[in-house]
Amino acid sequence: MANLITISRFPLLLLIALMFSSQSPAVRLLTVLLVIILIVMDSLDGYVARKRGESSLLGSVLDIMSDRSVEIVLWVCFAYYRLIPLAIPIIVIIRGTVVDALRGLYVSKGQRPFDAMRTKLGRFLVATPVMRTTYAVAKAVAFAGLALVHALNAWAAQGDIAQRWVNGSHLLFLIISWLAVALCLVRGIPVIVEAIPDLKNKS
Known about the structure:
- The chain is about 85% helix and about 0% strand.
- The protein has about 200 residues and is mainly α.
- The termini are far apart.
């Protein structure tokens, strides 16, 4: 069941990306709700896995795959609609590619990615609930907020609301977006640092 929830995020993500292109403010506003549902599903699959005893290596890998897909697609969409600078998806994609490639070292040994951290600092930054939750909340607020700004832009284009109100909201969620990117980088550094000795040993 948990893996089914995880996999079902992919078609929902595609639907959201398609709906972003609508010129209708109402359709764009609906994407805000769908983005929130998409984010809640990430927590739901983990909850179901723990409750039903379905935690597994496959589930852990699928969870990271879906999280990475959601991050990349949404950041790229927001950059395409000029809600964020192109630098954000570029940073996220490079970080995700490097970190996930290194995590493959541990998956090949049958280790779940989050269980592979050896140092206290690494485990704190990457695997503890406080850091995972902080990062998840920052992303959730940024994604939902930017989707809302996208909807507000459509209303502003029709003259229904003042553009200055939209711009103020946009600045707030842009700042939160950069905070999410900073957390993304901070949580990726320990994976890289701890993987270097393993790479040297294999060379």
